[in-house]
Amino acid sequence: MTLVFVHGWAFDAGFWDPLLAELDGLPSAAIDLGFRGRGPRIPRLEEPLVAIGHSLGFLWLLHERPFVWTKLIAINGFPRFTEGDGFAPGVPARTVEGMIAGMDRDPGAVVRDFLALCGGGEPPDDLNPDRLRDGLHWLLRWDGRAAMDGEKVQALAGRNDPIVPDAMTAGGFAGHPIHWHGGGHLLPITHPRWCADRIRECL
């Protein structure tokens, strides 16, 4: 069984390093969506797989379905980000639209503000503005709720997540197990051992 990890917006595959250290001994691979550096990198994968997505990475898995998985785990994730189409607890579309407009003026400032909000530190020098803009459009438009039907989905969520509020998590994962922690939006970095323990329980 291989664990496949997909990071969220403005991060790269290195986001998972603290969690992978706690999961030492379990086969794993990390997909890079290309928000930093030259572009996306998707390794060759052999089944069976367990897919784990953080934030936008979980939505990307639902929308793109790049491989067949046996289980799906969201960490600070969501099947839809913006409100609408019967999803009331989502983020107002104008918030994401404002970030998209800001990317044309100063991509570094948009990423810096986002990282400051979620506690992710300073932005790196190798941001990929075009790919970051793509990611914002995914957040604005994609809806993966129907893709969760019949799936074995579990969610790990933070009670103090400034990006994904409790109501958004509860609404997005209604009918699926949710494991709550008192932390924020970056649980794989701030609480990697707790995430590792929950992942082992899910397995």
Fold and architecture overview:
- The structure is a single chain.
- With 203 residues, the chain is an alpha/beta fold.
- It has one domain (2-202): Rossmann fold (3-Layer(aba) Sandwich), CATH 3.40.50.
- Helices cover 37% and strands 15% of the residues.
- It contains 8 helices and 6 strands; from the N terminus they run βαββαβαααβαβαα.
- The chain has helices at 17-22, 56-64, 93-105, 107-118, 129-141, 166-172, 187-190, 192-202, and strands at 2-6, 28-31, 49-54, 71-75, 153-158, 178-181.
- A 6-stranded parallel beta sheet has the order 2-1-3-4-5-6, with helices on both faces.
- α6 links the parallel β5 and β6 (178-181).
- The longest helix has 13 residues, at 93-105.
- It is globular and about 45 Å long.
- The N and C termini lie close together (9 Å).
- The relative contact order is 0.18.
- The model has no long low-confidence stretch (mean pLDDT 95).
Biggest sheet record = 6 strands, parallel
**Count of strand segments:** 6
| Helical content class | 25-40%
Q: What's the domain count? A: 1
CATH architecture heading: 3-Layer(aba) Sandwich
Would you identify the regions where 5 or more consecutive residues have pLDDT less than 50?
A: none
Query: In CATH terms, what is the fold-level topology?
Result: Rossmann fold
Helix and strand sequence: EHEEHEHHHEHEHH
Strand content: 5-15%
The CATH superfamily turns out to be Alpha/Beta hydrolase fold, catalytic domain
Radius of gyration: 16 Å
Q: What's the rounded overall pLDDT mean?
A: 95
Shape: globular
CATH class: Alpha Beta
First-residue to last-residue Cα separation = 9 Å
Q: Order of strands in the sheet with the most strands? A: 2-1-3-4-5-6
- Helix-strand category: alpha/beta
What is the subunit arrangement here? single chain
What is the tally of helical segments?
8
